Input
Amino acid sequence: MKRATEDWQATPITSRPALPRRRVTVRGRASASIAVGLLATLLLSACNTGSPAVTGPDASGPGTAGATEPTAGPGTAGPSAAGPSGSTPAEDPATVTMKQTVTDALNRLAAKTPKPATAQVTEALTGAGVAPAVLEVSASRTPTGLKADAIESAVLQGTDCVLGHIRDGSVTVTVLPVLASGKCFVGAGV
Output
């Protein structure tokens, strides 16, 4: 005797029409193979891009793998460490000088004011010799009027941007390439 659960298995499904089988041609397989090969090449080439030099207490955080420089906290400046390959990337001497100027100015400011306002960062950097025309500073207040968790500054130095970041008195300075717009920040200026 059949059980009730076996009846549904023996009943053929007739509500769906059978789909015709498509034949895959050699040309279709070749196109698919080329597409997969190109995709794999693009993905692997994206993995080989170098990562920028990062300094600061959060240098081991997301997006900073392969950092080549040590932490620069308030009032400290350590020697440059060798990168993963044993050498540091060659930087323009003017960029190195500007990076040190920004680091020193922001460390002095953060020692006095752990959460500075936009005007204080602008004043500290222009007081250190940075021209206002090449300086960008983020807003210290959100659009809803709250105090920002961190403040960013950027100095355009040739084809490089020297970016400074202050969060709760900790300073991080990074050198990145200039954006296609010729600026260091995306969006409208403050």
